[in-house]
TrEMBL record:
Keywords from the UniProt entry: 2Fe-2S, Iron, Iron-sulfur, Metal-binding, Oxidoreductase
SUPFAM superfamilies according to UniProt: Bet v1-like, ISP domain
Cofactor: Fe cation
Keyword Transmembrane part of the UniProt annotation: no
Organism of this sequence: Mycobacterium lacus
InterPro entries in the record: Rieske_2Fe-2S, Rieske_2Fe-2S_sf, Ring_hydroxy_dOase_asu_C_dom, Rng_hydr_dOase-A
Protein name, entry field: (2Fe-2S)-binding protein
Pfam families with a match to the protein in the record: Rieske, Ring_hydroxyl_A
Stored PROSITE patterns: RIESKE
Keyword hit for Oxidoreductase: yes
Amino acid sequence: MPHFAKPAAGSWTQNYPELGTAPVDYTDSVDPAFFETEREAIFKRTWLNVGRVERLPRTGSYFTKELPSAGRGMSVIVVKTKDGSVKAFHNLCRHRGNKLVWNDYPHEETSGTCRQFTCKYHAWRYSLDGELTFIQQEDEFFDVDKSRYGLVPVRCEVWEGFIFVNLDQHAKPLADYLGPLAKGIEGYPFHEMTEVYSYKAEVGSNWKLFIDAFAEFYHAPVLHQGQYTKEEAAKILKYGFEALHYEVASPHGMISVWGGQSPPADLNMVKPMDRVLRSGLFGPWERPDIEGLDPLPPGVNPAKAKQWGIDSFHFFPNFMLLIWAPGWYLTYHYWPTAVDKHIFEGTLYFVPPKNARERLAQELAAVTFKEYALQDANTLEATQTMIGTKVVRDFPLCDQEILLRSLHKVAGDYVKEYSNNGAAR
């Protein structure tokens, strides 16, 4: 018997009949040709989150973002201009193609504040709006019209403080792309949560496999039982896991799950360190006193379940946003670099601590998250290796893995549409 109500269709998966219930072909995660088409069909044509507006506190603040998923060497500059708007440009000097903004190592990202961008090679200069303003020894050139040689712009829009770019100048507006899932969480106090902890790692698997790992909690009682006390781990393993709610709003989706450890109903459920610092995986136990958490936006905890703990939103292709009941949030990004490699970024956002105890509580949540992420990542290279043998191609997915089913279908649909029509655009 299910612990929580399922749709009238009988299951969450059957509630979205376009997904089907047949085993899913994972060739899309091991085929190099499919991956190269993904780069063109997906990462060059969809909205990609590259950061938050808090990284641009003043006029001239900028950061660079490497986008290897869209092609080798792809890099953008994101900058706050004089009128307060956020703009993005290809990180390329119009003279001889040198990378415009970098420090000691051209493949590393950087950030800072400036009045203009100056190329290291021949000192061509560009305004914050991307206009070419200075050419070294301009009289040596032949009828160069500076107005024609500004930085190449990249589509850039902001939603709730999240900065997105799109390499496709013909793409639909960001708000239309994000759709109702994003609309439902507008008003959440993301802007109040400016204490940041971040992790970055290269993972030896296809990018979709790590999204798969975080898009279901079916594995949690098994893979993560070492994070609980022995007694609690046995109880959770026997109970199993079910989510409160799923929603597929293609190409995106979300899962809402129960919590219970912030604070736990019984202190014996958690380890001594959690009790001392009043924190853990679910974050600090004391909810911050800020506006926007009560009431929550309508799209948060859509089932309105009293057991609610986390909502995990997947905005296709590679951005996941997790809102936690104790009043903080977490983001994941997956940047593929090859069919069997990607860069994973995990970032935690809290309301700034008011004292040392609150800071330690946040740090415990951050290191606990890192341990969980390592446990998830630890399985990925083994999965990648074995599905790469192609001994088995199709794998059965349960009802709790509905978002995996959706992800692989959406990726396949984008590739198919591009192969049939998009390449000619």
